[in-house]
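Technical annex, item 7. During the second reporting period the consortium partners agreed on a shared format for inverse folding records so that results from different sites could be compared directly. Each record opens with the tokenized structure and is followed by the designed sequence. A conforming record, contributed by the partner at site C, is shown below for reference.
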């Protein structure tokens, strides 16, 4: 049961990395320092005061940078692979009872995949906002992503199984919607709703 809870916490926090990379790491650090979160061996440094300061600083810089239209689109180019890496590391930090191969494979597929899907969706949404509002709507979108990252991060720690199920469902839905859109665009055929 501990493995399932760890995986669910990891997936939830990884999905939050798709919204903002450093917010989930900051939340992890706070909960680990308060004794409410146990990390696997090798990741205990996340629950240290220097890590807390570093994550808080990185969170503030990331949040401020996303409020600048134009810069936010450039950041998405860097944030997409960084979110996958962060999501993989976050999930791996909670998996304890598996072999290293299985641990990192699961972390990459579940954690990196969840972070990548969410980050890809936010990047597409920001691109659409940039085109339709000339970037004027992007700061509002950035604030929403920051709040979403914080809420998902806290929920992933407090109610991990429910959060994990919701995140997996949301990722499946987003991939399905994107797949339908691509099919329509490139096949010229209408899909049955």
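Designed sequence (site C submission):
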């Amino acid at each position: 049961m501990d493995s399932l809870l760890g995986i669910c916490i990891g997936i939830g926090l990884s999905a939050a990395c798709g919204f903002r990379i450093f917010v989930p790491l900051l939340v992890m650090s706070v909960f680990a320092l308060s004794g409410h979160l146990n990390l696997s061996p090798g990741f205990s440094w996340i629950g240290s005061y220097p890590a807390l300061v570093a994550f808080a600083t990185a969170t503030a810089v990331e949040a401020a940078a996303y409020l600048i239209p134009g810069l936010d689109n450039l950041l998405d180019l860097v944030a997409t692979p960084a979110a996958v890496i962060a999501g993989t590391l976050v999930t791996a930090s909670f998996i304890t009872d598996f072999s290293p191969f299985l641990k990192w494979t699961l972390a990459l597929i579940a954690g990196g995949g969840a972070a990548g899907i969410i980050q890809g969706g936010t990047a597409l949404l920001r691109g659409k906002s940039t085109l339709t509002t000339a970037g004027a709507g992007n700061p509002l979108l950035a604030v929403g992503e920051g709040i979403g990252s914080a809420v998902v991060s806290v929920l992933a720690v407090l109610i991990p199984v429910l959060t994990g199920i919701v995140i997996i469902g949301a990722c499946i839905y987003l991939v399905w919607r994107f797949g339908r859109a691509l099919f329509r665009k490139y096949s010229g055929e209408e899909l049955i709703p």
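The mean pLDDT is 91. Residues 2-187 form one domain. All partners now use this format for quarterly exchanges.
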